[in-house]
């Protein structure tokens, strides 16, 4: 399972990547591990965290990584990548997302399914909460230890 989590958190470079796509792939690489570190610290008390708040904290911490030309575009791209990876982690039992609307727009549901994700990941709604399952907490700790860093994760983990 750890290999699967590593592949979700750090997906391999696609073999059919367009020219220059490798730079974008490399730019996105640190966002998800940092999001999971923030989530780990924010949910240490056992309570879920607001997805919007965790995402905003991530964007604030990594604001220096946003290219100057169109930082809003790249912030949205990073946030979408995080949500799509979260949707994968939900499917594998490492994360729980709650607060999704039961009244889905059928067109949005079709679009999300066509892209292989969930409606909430493609069209985020206010009020979503996120938390790590026991498996997710284990995987974050394992990833942290495997990186050669201390196993204890504090809010300042980068």
Structure notes:
- By secondary structure, the protein is mostly helical.
- It has one domain.
- Helix content is 54%, strand content 6%.
- It has helices at residues 2-9, 21-28, 31-42, 51-61, 71-91, 106-114, 119-122, 134-146; strands spanning 49-50, 95-98, 129-132.
- The chain has a 3-stranded antiparallel beta sheet.
- Helix 3 packs across helix 4 (51-61).
- The protein is globular, with a radius of gyration of 16 Å.
- Residues 148-158 have low confidence and may be disordered.
How does the helix and strand content classify structurally? mainly alpha
Residues in helices, as a percent range:
40-55%
- According to DSSP, the number of beta strands is 3
Poorly predicted sequence stretches spanning 5 or more consecutive residues: 148-158
User: Helix segment count?
Assistant: 8
Beta-strand content estimate: 5-15%
**Outline, from the CA principal axes?**
globular
Number of domains: 1
SSE pattern: HHHEHHEHHEH
Q: Which strand order does the major sheet show?
A: 1-3-2
Q: What is the radius of gyration computed over CA atoms, rounded to a whole number of angstroms?
A: 16 Å
Oligomer: single chain
> What profile does the largest beta sheet have?
3 strands, antiparallel
Task: Quote the distance from N terminus to C terminus.
Answer: 24 Å
Rounded average pLDDT: 82
């Amino acid at each position: 399972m750890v290999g699967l989590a590593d592949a979700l958190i750090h997906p391999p470079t696609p073999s059919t990547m367009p020219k220059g796509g490798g730079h974008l792939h490399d730019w996105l690489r640190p966002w998800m591990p940092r999001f999971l570190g923030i989530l780990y610290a924010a949910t240490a008390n056992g309570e879920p965290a607001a997805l919007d708040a965790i995402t905003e904290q991530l964007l604030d911490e990594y604001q220096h990584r946003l290219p100057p030309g169109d930082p809003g575009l790249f912030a949205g791209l990073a946030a979408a990548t995080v949500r799509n990876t979260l949707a994968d982690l939900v499917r594998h039992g490492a994360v729980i997302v709650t607060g999704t609307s039961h009244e889905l727009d059928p067109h949005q549901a079709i679009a999300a399914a066509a892209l292989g994700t969930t409606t909430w990941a493609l069209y985020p709604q206010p009020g979503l909460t996120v938390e790590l399952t026991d498996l997710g907490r284990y995987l974050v700790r394992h990833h942290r230890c495997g990186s050669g860093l201390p196993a204890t994760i504090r809010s300042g983990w980068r």
